[in-house]
Amino acid sequence: MPLIDQITAFVSERPLGTAIVCVAALVALVVGYFVARAVSRAAVRLFQRYVAPRPVEDVLTIVAASIATGVSAQGMWRFSSDVLGFDGPLRLLLFAFIEVAVITSAVRARRNMRENFSAGIDGVAVWALTCLTAVLSSMDARSPAEAVFRLSAPLVAAWLWERGMAIERHRITGRARIHWRLTPERMLVRIGLAEVSDRTASEVDAHRRLTRVALAAKKARALREAGASDRKMRAALARLDREMDRAVEHTGLAVDQARQEALLSQIGALYNTSALIDLSPPVPWAPEPEAGPGAAPGRGARPVSPALPVAARSSAPVDDDDDDAGEGAEVVDATPMPADPAQRAALMRAAREYWDKQIERRFVPRAADIAHETGMPLSTARECRALWKLESRAHALIEAAQSEQGGVDTGTFPAIEVPEPVLVANGSSPGH
Predict the structure, then answer these.
(1) Is the pTM of this model over 0.70?
(2) How confident is the model at residue 289, as a pLDDT?
(3) pLDDT in tens, 368-412
(4) Which residues are CB-contacts of 294 (< 8 A; sequence separation ≥ 6)?
(5) Which residues are CB-neighbours of 237 under 8 A, at least 6 positions away?
(6) Residue with more model confidence, 285 or 432
(7) What CA–CA distance (Å, rounded) separates 381 from 393?
(8) Percent of the chain with pLDDT over 70
(9) Which string of b and e fits 42-74 if b means at least 16 CB within 10 Å?
(10) Which of 156, 255, 261, 413 is the most exposed place for a label (fewest CB within 10 A)?
(11) How far is 214 from 107, CA to CA, in rounded Å?
């Protein structure tokens, strides 16, 4: 008899039982609906609380580590039955005790990382217990391939855990665990196939061409000062002219003011290399001076100004940067330089910022202007100005003003505007 006929016969023979079955089925459907809705809501809450805030790589790491841990647990299930002889409930309770210990140690290591910035002994325990369960589960393998597989599964889980801990360590502390001295990036930079900075190819090419021009100019000047033969001078000047033509063609040197300034800076640095031997940098560990500003320097006295030439000390005659003092006169500065290194550094930074701002306005300030604006002693302001006016931009402004006015550097004149960019540095001018 077909199924539908059997159902029809059962309903006609037992109507009361059919009604009870229908009511029970309806109640079961309602209860199942509410249970399914509660389970789905709980699953959504768990997902939003534990899964959604995590990055995708962390979720994939947990999933892969769970699969690898399951493979290891399956090997321990067979090991506990074949080797240890466990059976029934005892086997079910004891087969995965090492995997539970691995998970516990991993959770403790993560907590230690968040609180103490180190996995500690629990991190070592994760690797030790992982190796133990890998060896035990592979001892019951039936073939070499199965043994290799059971050895690798727990190690893969431990490696994924270690990488997750490394990412969290970097996220918390802001630094990596170790910096290798030999990396592919460093090797490519060492052999010249990679760039250290993030400059573009055009910027690198322009810098190299400007450097070639500066080096060619230095060589030609050195040959001229050494009295070289006409043949060497012609070769040096021809090379300089060739490099200059290439720089103008490929870097836009004729119209790019920033690259003109870069070229002047390189030439100024190359021409004044010998000035480095006259610098007198301060001794960082020297004691602070105890005597007053007018007292003679005693034992342990620290220089007043950092990194300035000896010839620019305050006891020297007044330079030509002030027009209100007589030539060769001595100036007694009653304003002492602060003894605190932080205050001295603040004054030096303020003076440098004022100097750069005035140079941007194409004005060469006097030492008195620097002292008035920043509050530093006049002698220190003279020392700073004597050093800073040798830089390429300030020197170019001074040379331009002198060529227009025919005077000396008094520090009281603004730069004279010229229709074309002036390429001058360290005593060389367009008229030379």
Answers:
(1) no
(2) 60
(3) 888 888 888 888 888 888 888 888 777 777 777 777 655 444 444
(4) 334
(5) 220
(6) 285
(7) 19
(8) 79
(9) eeeeeeeeeeeeeeeeeeebbeebeebbebbbe
(10) 255
(11) 62
For residues 232-257, one letter each, b for 16 or more C-beta atoms within 10 angstroms of the residue's C-beta and e for the rest, the string is: eeeebbebbeebbeebeeebebeeee
391 or 29, which is more confident: 29
Q: Measuring CA to CA, how many Å separate 199 from each of 136, 203, 249? A: 55, 6, 20
Place of tokens 């950092």: 306
In the predicted model, what is the mean pLDDT of residues 36-62?
A: 83
When pLDDT is cut at 50, 70 and 90, the band that residue 304 belongs to is very low
Joined tokens for residue 55:
């990055």
What is the 3-class SS of the chain, one letter each residue? CCHHHHHHHHHHHCHHHHHHHHHHHHHHHHHHHHHHHHHHHHHHHHHHHHHCCCCHHHHHHHHHHHHHHHHHHHHHHHHHHHCCCCCCHHHHHHCCHHHHHHHHHHHHHHHHHHHHCCCHHHHHHHHHHHHHHHHHHHHCCCCHHHHHHHHHHHHHHHHHHHHHHHHHHHHHHCCCCCCCCCCHHHHHHHCCCCCCCCCCHHHHHHHHHHHHHHHHHHHHHHHHHCCCCHHHHHHHHHHHHHHHHHHHHHHCCCCCHHHHHHHHHHHHHHHCHHHHHHEECCCCCCCCCCCCCCCCCCCCCCCCCCCEEHHHCCCCCCCCCCCCCCCCCCCCCCCCCCCCHHHHHHHHHHHHHHHHHHHHCCECCCHHHHHHHHCCCHHHHHHHHHHHCCCHHHHHHHHHHHHHHCCCCCCCCECCCCCCCCCCECCECCCC
pLDDT at 311: 36
Question: Tell me: the pLDDT tens digits for 216-261?
Answer: 999 999 999 888 899 999 999 999 999 999 999 888 888 888 888 9
Residue 404: predicted pLDDT:
67
Whether residue 79 contacts residue 97, with contact meaning beta carbons closer than 8 Å, is answered with no
Q: Distance between CA 424 and CA 407 in Å, rounded?
A: 17
Pick the residue with more confidence: 314 or 418?
418
